[in-house]
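Translate sequence into C-alpha coordinates.
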Amino acid sequence: MLDFLRDNPILWNLKMTDYRRKDKKDKIWEDQAQLMNRDTDLLKGWFRSLRDTFTRLDRRKTGDGAPQLTEREVWIISKFAFLKTITRHRPEPIRSVSTSIETTDKLKFVCIK
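Result follows.
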Protein backbone atom coordinates (compact mmCIF):
# COMPACT_ATOMS: atom_id res chain seq x y z
CA MET A 1 0.00 0.00 0.00
CA LEU A 2 2.87 2.39 0.75
CA ASP A 3 4.37 1.75 -2.68
CA PHE A 4 0.97 2.47 -4.22
CA LEU A 5 0.82 5.82 -2.40
CA ARG A 6 4.38 6.78 -3.35
CA ASP A 7 3.64 5.88 -6.98
CA ASN A 8 0.48 8.03 -7.01
CA PRO A 9 1.40 11.47 -5.68
CA ILE A 10 -1.83 12.85 -7.14
CA LEU A 11 -3.50 11.43 -4.01
CA TRP A 12 -1.43 13.42 -1.52
CA ASN A 13 0.68 16.10 -3.24
CA LEU A 14 -1.18 19.42 -3.17
CA LYS A 15 1.28 20.94 -5.64
CA MET A 16 0.26 18.65 -8.50
CA THR A 17 -2.13 20.14 -11.05
CA ASP A 18 -4.40 17.07 -10.98
CA TYR A 19 -4.65 16.99 -7.17
CA ARG A 20 -8.04 18.73 -7.33
CA ARG A 21 -9.38 16.27 -9.94
CA LYS A 22 -11.64 14.19 -7.72
CA ASP A 23 -12.68 11.95 -10.60
CA LYS A 24 -9.08 10.90 -11.31
CA LYS A 25 -8.30 10.31 -7.66
CA ASP A 26 -11.48 8.30 -7.13
CA LYS A 27 -10.60 6.09 -10.11
CA ILE A 28 -7.13 5.41 -8.69
CA TRP A 29 -8.58 4.55 -5.27
CA GLU A 30 -11.23 2.28 -6.84
CA ASP A 31 -8.64 0.39 -8.90
CA GLN A 32 -6.49 -0.19 -5.81
CA ALA A 33 -9.51 -1.25 -3.74
CA GLN A 34 -10.46 -3.85 -6.36
CA LEU A 35 -6.90 -5.10 -6.52
CA MET A 36 -6.82 -5.56 -2.74
CA ASN A 37 -10.45 -6.76 -2.42
CA ARG A 38 -11.19 -3.94 0.00
CA ASP A 39 -13.65 -1.08 0.22
CA THR A 40 -12.50 2.25 -1.23
CA ASP A 41 -13.58 4.14 1.89
CA LEU A 42 -11.51 1.78 4.04
CA LEU A 43 -8.34 2.53 2.06
CA LYS A 44 -8.99 6.28 2.06
CA GLY A 45 -9.68 6.24 5.79
CA TRP A 46 -6.52 4.23 6.48
CA PHE A 47 -4.41 6.73 4.55
CA ARG A 48 -6.12 9.78 6.03
CA SER A 49 -5.66 8.46 9.57
CA LEU A 50 -1.96 7.69 9.13
CA ARG A 51 -1.32 10.93 7.24
CA ASP A 52 -2.87 12.94 10.08
CA THR A 53 -0.90 10.96 12.66
CA PHE A 54 2.31 11.61 10.72
CA THR A 55 1.53 15.33 10.63
CA ARG A 56 0.99 15.43 14.40
CA LEU A 57 4.18 13.46 15.03
CA ASP A 58 6.16 15.66 12.66
CA ARG A 59 5.15 18.72 14.65
CA ARG A 60 6.05 17.13 17.99
CA LYS A 61 9.06 18.53 19.74
CA THR A 62 11.98 16.25 20.56
CA GLY A 63 14.37 16.40 23.46
CA ASP A 64 14.78 15.35 27.05
CA GLY A 65 11.27 16.27 28.16
CA ALA A 66 9.49 14.71 25.17
CA PRO A 67 7.72 11.38 25.69
CA GLN A 68 9.17 8.32 23.99
CA LEU A 69 7.60 7.32 20.68
CA THR A 70 5.78 4.02 20.45
CA GLU A 71 6.83 1.35 17.96
CA ARG A 72 3.82 2.26 15.79
CA GLU A 73 4.70 5.97 15.84
CA VAL A 74 8.28 5.23 14.80
CA TRP A 75 6.93 3.08 11.94
CA ILE A 76 4.60 5.86 10.78
CA ILE A 77 7.39 8.45 10.83
CA SER A 78 9.74 6.22 8.83
CA LYS A 79 7.23 5.00 6.25
CA PHE A 80 5.40 8.27 5.63
CA ALA A 81 8.53 10.42 5.43
CA PHE A 82 7.67 11.12 1.76
CA LEU A 83 4.89 13.41 3.07
CA LYS A 84 7.44 15.65 4.79
CA THR A 85 7.91 17.75 1.64
CA ILE A 86 4.23 18.75 1.53
CA THR A 87 3.46 18.95 5.25
CA ARG A 88 2.67 22.49 6.37
CA HIS A 89 1.98 23.32 9.99
CA ARG A 90 -0.13 26.22 11.12
CA PRO A 91 1.74 28.78 13.17
CA GLU A 92 1.14 28.78 16.90
CA PRO A 93 -1.38 31.41 17.98
CA ILE A 94 0.20 34.42 19.63
CA ARG A 95 -2.27 34.36 22.48
CA SER A 96 -5.38 32.47 23.37
CA VAL A 97 -8.88 33.72 22.72
CA SER A 98 -9.61 33.99 26.45
CA THR A 99 -6.55 36.18 26.94
CA SER A 100 -7.69 38.38 24.06
CA ILE A 101 -11.15 38.74 25.59
CA GLU A 102 -9.73 39.59 29.02
CA THR A 103 -7.43 42.19 27.47
CA THR A 104 -10.30 43.74 25.50
CA ASP A 105 -12.47 43.89 28.63
CA LYS A 106 -9.67 45.59 30.57
CA LEU A 107 -9.22 48.14 27.78
CA LYS A 108 -12.94 48.93 27.81
CA PHE A 109 -12.80 49.44 31.57
CA VAL A 110 -9.81 51.78 31.28
CA CYS A 111 -11.46 53.81 28.50
CA ILE A 112 -14.65 54.28 30.48
CA LYS A 113 -12.85 55.85 33.46
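Note: The chain has a mean pLDDT of 82.
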